[in-house]
Design goal:
There is one protein chain. The strands form six sheets. The protein has a six-stranded mixed beta sheet with strand order 5-4-16-15-14-6, covered by helices on one side. It has a six-stranded mixed β-barrel with strand order 20-24-21-23-22-25. It is built from 25 helices and 25 strands. Helices cover 30% and strands 17% of the residues. It is of the alpha/beta class and 716 residues long. The chain is globular and about 70 Å long.
Length: 716
């Protein structure tokens, strides 16, 4: 007899590193999840989520999901494993950590993590163990540094206009983010403005992507030249009388100095730098100048250049010149991360953090693991690691160094993961992890204004354990479980966070599902003044003196070429520019069906993305005798990557686009795209310039590169 179970509906939040942090409704049938939907009653998610998360059952119930602890049984990276009990695996990790500490001191151990889950408990508890044992600190540099720094240099606080106000704009400028691919809810509100108000949508990017194709005006410029475009736009605004001089006098630091500086930053000057036509620059400036309700939605992508903080600051200056901040639907938004003010000190163990312990830059993991004294800050070598929530052997820069480092015989690595990632393949111990519907957590939205609860909805399969479980069990074995913050469950940590913020308890939020913390209109629009002590927007940033959410500790010193940062918004040529040996510039843009290295294991995403490809301007292809489907190799002093060519006229000559962070094994020579990206720190507060890479390009002769087929990728 067939028994039909009616699906029930669970509520959660998307855990992934995406500014949308969508509120979710999850179908549950007989203990398994089915289709995932956006919550219709959440005013930001508005019932819309990306297709990859809608298919999340593919990940949770994937046949190749890790279910047992594994211990390496052969040579490093060989792929030979034996199953172990949880107790045996954790005992081994603790034994190796204690032995490493005894030889080299506590800083030889480096817990390493990032944003595979954005849940505050499961993501950040690793820091409690770090601080308790005095292990090396981690300076986070993958994602936010340049964007947040550039924003705060101008606005003085990490908040902005309510992103739902995009629907009330007369023009929405989507700058440096492929929102259709990376944060679909931006398009929900922008297209509503178009439908209800006949608003214009402008998209600015380095290639003709899905967002540009939906825009009324698309500007495709050369990577790293956004500051030049912004300056030319402001030149026109002052020249043609669109600058709001009353607003400038009341709210900004030096409008006269800015206007004088911009005299030579003409559209003709910017056209030569950006590759845009003078006519397009003029048209964009006129649209912005004539449309007071212009909403600037500034993304992360255009900041991932060596001049990225300057680019963000320059773009942010435009609504200050027009006075757009005064109007509903006008102004700018990048992130609301500064509004939440959640006390996570108990989760992170801040009470026993030691300021004398060194910080290691997560982006420089390759240099660190290969003994670079500067990257190690002259401290001991890293000889033991616990890795949660990230896949550095695939997503971090300078991949050849990373692989070389992981293959060191004196390095012990434990990885806590869902699948056998490129990093897990190089580990000594691999632990199976739960997924977001299988544990409790709480999430805050960077691209919106809600705190959203993610309660456990289904039991995990037998085997996987939570991040918190791993941290707690290691704390017992390492002798620190008695310290404050340890011994608490997820719900106790969440209760403490919510109570401190006056938001009740886990049970209260479970009933409400999410809490809207958007600041009032006057605060969000900075009508009571900007976040600097003098309350004024800064056209003249204090590049080394301004506090920022991700400023490195003093012990790390100056980051990047800080002395070359400009006095006013400008184009500063700090980028890794093309040269005779490397005539192309490469941007590694997101793929629609992947999220960093997540979803690269699911059949639905692989089917939609097909294979790694290099988008190449047809004129460049003709000069190199390349056709659609040919194999090309791109490279620089860091390494080389082989992949198929796709002719594409939506990119400027001399610019290459490689979408998605595919597994290393998906590329024809087995090396991933981040083999080519650099880990050198970006001025002034660090960060990695993932979209700022110069390369050579050459055709690979037929039969010279091994072929990788889709079925091989699906099982990789």
């Amino acid at each position: 007899m067939n028994i039909h179970f009616e699906p029930r509906k669970g509520h959660s939040a998307c855990p992934h590193d995406c500014p949308s942090t969508c509120a979710l409704e999850v179908e549950i049938v007989n203990g398994r999840i089915g289709r995932v939907h956006g919550a219709k009653d959440n005013s930001y998610t508005a019932g819309v989520i990306c297709a990859k998360v809608a298919r999340y059952a593919e990940r949770v119930h994937h046949p190749e999901r890790l279910l047992k602890p594994l211990v390496r049984a052969g040579a490093k990276g060989e792929g030979s494993w034996k199953e172990a009990s949880w107790d045996a695996a954790l005992d081994l990790i603790a034994e190796k950590f204690l032995a490493a500490e005894a030889r080299e001191g506590s800083e030889t151990v480096w817990p390493y993590y990032y944003a595979g889950t954005m849940g505050l408990v499961q993501r950040d508890s690793i820091n409690r163990l770090r601080h308790a044992r005095k292990y090396s600190n981690q300076f986070d540099s993958f994602c936010t540094n340049m964007a947040w720094t550039g924003w705060v240099m101008g606005a003085g606080a990490l908040r902005g206009v309510d992103p739902r106000e995009m629907a009330k704009a007369d023009c929405v400028v989507i700058w440096g983010t492929n929102a259709v691919v990376t944060q679909v809810n931006v398009m929900t509100h922008a297209t509503r403005a178009r439908k209800e108000r006949r608003a214009k949508i402008v998209a600015i990017d380095v290639y003709d992507n899905a967002t540009v194709r939906q825009a009324d005006l698309g500007l495709i410029l050369r990577p790293g030249t956004d500051g030049a475009l912004a300056c030319a736009v402001m030149h026109v605004l002052f020249r043609d009388g669109y600058a709001d001089r009353d607003y400038l006098a009341r709210y900004t630091d030096d409008p006269a100095g800015l206007e004088a500086h911009l005299q030579t930053r003409t559209p003709q000057w910017a056209a030569a730098i950006t590759g845009l036509s003078v006519e397009k620059i003029e048209a964009f400036a006129q649209l912005v100048g004539q449309t007071k309700r212009t909403f600037f939605r500034l993304g992360y992508g255009f900041s991932r250049q060596r001049n990225g903080a300057v680019n963000m600051h320059a773009a942010l200056c435009i609504p200050a010149v027009t006075g757009a901040w005064q109007h509903e639907g006008g102004g700018a938004f990048h992130s609301n991360s500064g509004i939440y003010k959640l006390d996570t000190r108990g989760i992170q163990g801040d009470a026993f953090a030691d300021p004398a312990i060194r910080h290691l830059d997560q982006s420089k993991i390759g240099r660190i693991l290969t003994g670079d004294r500067e990257a190690l800050y002259n401290g001991p070598a890293v000889t033991a690691m616990l890795i949660q929530n990230t896949n550095p052997a695939n997503v971090a820069p300078e991949q050849r160094l990373i692989r070389e480092g992981f293959l060191r015989e004196d390095l012990f690595v434990a990885v806590h993961e869902h699948f056998m990632t490129d990093t897990a393949k190089l580990a000594d111990v691999v632990l199976p992890a739960t997924m977001f519907v299988e544990h409790d957590d709480i999430y805050k939205g960077g691209g919106q204004q809600h705190i959203t609860l993610g309660p456990k909805l289904v039991d995990p399969p037998e085997g996987p354990r939570t991040n918190l479980f791993v941290i707690e069990e290691l704390a017992k074995r390492l002798g620190v479980a008695h310290l404050p913050g340890f011994g608490l469950g997820e719900r106790q940590h969440i209760d403490a966070i919510l109570a401190q913020r006056g938001l009740g308890s886990f049970a209260d939020l479970e009933e409400q599902r999410f809490a809207d913390l958007q600041p009032p209109f006057e605060e969000a629009h900075f009508l009571q003044g900007f976040g600097h002590p003098d309350k004024r927007f800064r056209f003249q940033p204090d590049w080394m003196g301004t506090p920022a959410p991700n400023r490195p500790p003093t012990s790390m010193g100056v980051q990047g070429e800080a002395t070359r940062l400009p006095t006013y918004p400008d184009h500063v040529d700090l980028i890794e520019g093309a040269d005779e040996a490397h005539p192309f510039r490469l941007a590694t843009s997101p793929a629609r069906s992947f999220l960093n290295s997540t979803f690269t294991e699911t059949a639905g995403s692989l089917k939609r993305e097909t294979r790694p490809e290099l988008l190449l301007n047809p004129q460049d292809a003709m000069l190199l005798d390349l056709s659609d489907g040919d194999v090309a190799e791109i490279g620089n002093h860091r390494g080389a990557v082989a992949l198929h060519v796709k002719l594409f006229d939506g990119v400027q000559g001399g610019v290459l686009i490689a979408e998605g962070i595919w597994p290393n094994s998906a590329h024809l020579n087995g090396e991933g795209i981040n083999t080519l990206t650099g880990a050198d720190a970006v001025a002034p507060y660090g960060g990695a310039a993932f979209h700022d890479t110069r390369v050579w390009l050459r055709k690979v002769a037929l039969g010279a590169a091994p072929k990788t087929t889709l079925p091989e990728l699906v099982t990789a």
